[in-house]
Amino acid sequence: MAMTSNPPTSTGDTGDTGEADSRAPRWLAPAWPMYLALALLFGAYLGVNHLIDLRSVRPALAPWKPFVWESSSVVVIFALIPLIVRFERRFKLDARPRSRILLAHIAGAVVFSIVHTGGMVLIRKLTYALVGESYDFGNVLIGGVYELQKDLITYVVILIVLFAVREFRVRRAGELRAAELAAELSEARLRHLTAQIEPHFLFNALNAISNRMHEDVEAADRMISQLGDLLRAAYESDHHVQVPLGRELGWLRGYAAMMAERFRGQLAFEVEAEPGLDTAQVPRLLLQPIVENAIRHGLRDGRGWLRVDVRRTGARLQYTISDDGIGLPEAPLERGTGLSNISRRLELLFPNDHTLTFAPRVPCGTVVTVSFPVPG
Which helix (H) or strand (E) holds 357? Predict the structure, then answer.
């Protein structure tokens, strides 16, 4: 900011307009004392610089005078900024017609300069009077024109800051909304993919019950009861994409019990989870399709052994599903509805931060490994 060696002349400083703009809508709120303190501190800072500049040419100058000159100007500018904020909201810089906006702000700048000059002169006269001195502004026309050219720059700077802040907020709001829409879309896709598992499971479960009914009616009746328990448990959390691990494993054990009825005496099923993981949030109905796929395609007629291990390593959770079935086919593994569904859900929930692998088990069978991050 240009300084002058004429003591009575105001600096016409632009002030900290960015901070003022952010405070302006809350001018009457409890934060206004901080806003006023900021104006006084900035005025004091300018006063110190002005005093240093004048010491070499006017060593007898009272130190308090530069502080009064600078502070009076800054305080009035800061007091007018909230009004400029409201005025700019009514006559936005990017509004149309442009000629109307231009004329409005030319008039606003002139009024701003008149009020600013008059306000700072009044403060200076009152302050000087308190110490028994008289403040002389000098020639009103010359002083007014001098202040006007500085105030025009100040007014334009304030407008630019207001416009920039508003555009930043608009763009930021747009980015946040876009992120929200993307999250909502991902959530909707996840719900849709999770919902696909239930009818697929239900169809297979009813088919298993139908087959069992011809062999053992009582076993089929128990399977129907177990299926009812599973469906009730599923519907309790059907609006959730993720559930506590304890609920997921409880659902899996219920499914295992039903399959044990279907293949009585032929299927050995184990679930082992590391202690303390019951509350960890995991994708809902992720394990069941893998286990179902292992029973249908890995074990011969449901005969064999199948084990699910859940372990935590650092910030990652790992599922290991092992069986002693026929193993992986020689041709590339084709993923049906269940496995494709799992792969898509993992990608949506943990993009580029998950694993889903299939490997042969020694001496026979298959090992499926799934890992993904979990909150600490």
Answer: strand 355-360
Angle at 35 between CA 32 and CA 36, to 5 degrees: 90
Q: At what angle do helices 140-213 and 64-90 cross, to 10 degrees?
A: 50
Same domain as 221, residue 144: no
The one-letter code for the residue type at 323 is D
Residue 314 and residue 263 share a domain? yes
Sign, CA dihedral 102-107-108-113, equals positive
| Packing angle of the helix pair 337-349, 140-213 (nearest 10 deg) | 160
Q: List all residues 6 or more positions away from 358 whose beta carbon is below 8 Å from its beta carbon.
A: 328, 333, 366, 367, 368
Rounded to 5 degrees, φ, ψ at 64 are: -75, -20
* Domain assignment present for 228: yes
What would the two tokens of residue 59 be? 């060593």
Walking along the chain (376 residues) 10 residues at a time, the average pLDDT comes out as 37 40 48 75 77 70 86 91 93 90 95 96 94 92 93 95 91 78 61 58 77 79 81 67 90 84 83 94 88 84 89 95 88 67 87 93 93 88
Amino acid making up residue 92: K
Domains held by the chain: number: 2
Give the domain range for residue 157. Answer: 17-178
β-partners of residue 282 are 243
Query: Residue 295 and residue 205: Cα distance in Å, rounded?
Result: 12
**In a shared domain, residues 31 and 174:** yes
